[in-house]
């Protein structure tokens, strides 16, 4: 596990964008795993700038979604599908046909989860997976006590995560869904390169447990210690408890 401490979120974004540019130059049809949340936004902005500058061609790239709310219509502005279209696909000019994601509106959610897990494998697997981290150490929506071998499945959000995410729903926790679909920890660990970003003091405990704590389901991100190619990118504040 490599830990890189950067001066600020923008520097982290540029570093990850550089890794993606290199990947695309080596493998133009790479499958890029993307996360939502505010932390990865500088990555998408920096990548967009690099692509517009002609440093990489995204005409063959494919994009895979990490997690999704259950029950939000796909066109709801806060469904992760909408968020990723807004923040990744549209700025980069990537067509919908290049997008892989679970169906959060399916009538049979477990079947939708299994289908998505299978689709990821059949598409050759994720080449580079961008991850954020929850204040409780969750990755994707794998809350504490998730099995470290878990596959894509339905999960119930903790109260803490619903409180944390209420900011995307006008601060109204009653609007935050209770259930989600998330790639499992075992699924995430199959990506060839994992890049976890964390910024701000609020993530310092989670980063310390991820990097220096025991591998434990109490901190789902600690499972990244098991992966042969993990890069953790943090600012000084998020690294302050290392
Ligand atoms: C949500 C997402 C995670 C993300 C986390 C942190 O729970 N499911 O993938 O890592 O939020 O979000 P932020 O980066 O906004 O702190």
TrEMBL record:
Listed GO MF terms: glucosamine-6-phosphate deaminase activity; identical protein binding
Similarity field: Belongs to the glucosamine/galactosamine-6-phosphate isomerase family. NagB subfamily.
Entries under NCBIfam families matching the protein: nagB, PRK00443.1-4
Catalyses which reaction(s): alpha-D-glucosamine 6-phosphate + H2O = beta-D-fructose 6-phosphate + NH4(+)
GO CC annotation: cytoplasm
Domain of life: Bacteria
Coiled-coil regions, chain positions: none
The entry's keywords: Allosteric enzyme, Carbohydrate metabolism, Hydrolase
Protein's job: Catalyzes the reversible isomerization-deamination of glucosamine 6-phosphate (GlcN6P) to form fructose 6-phosphate (Fru6P) and ammonium ion.
GO BP: any one term: N-acetylglucosamine catabolic process
EC number: 3.5.99.6
Record comment: activity regulation: Allosterically activated by N-acetylglucosamine 6-phosphate (GlcNAc6P).
Active site: 67, 136, 138, 143
Residue ranges constituting the Glucosamine/galactosamine-6-phosphate isomerase domain according to the UniProt record: 10-226
Name of the protein in question: Glucosamine-6-phosphate deaminase
Site (Part of the allosteric site): 146, 153, 155-156
Pathway(s) this gene product operates in, as recorded in its UniProt entry: Amino-sugar metabolism; N-acetylneuraminate degradation; D-fructose 6-phosphate from N-acetylneuraminate: step 5/5
InterPro entries: Glc/Gal-6P_isomerase, Glucosamine6P_isomerase, Glucosamine6P_isomerase_CS, NagB/RpiA_transferase-like
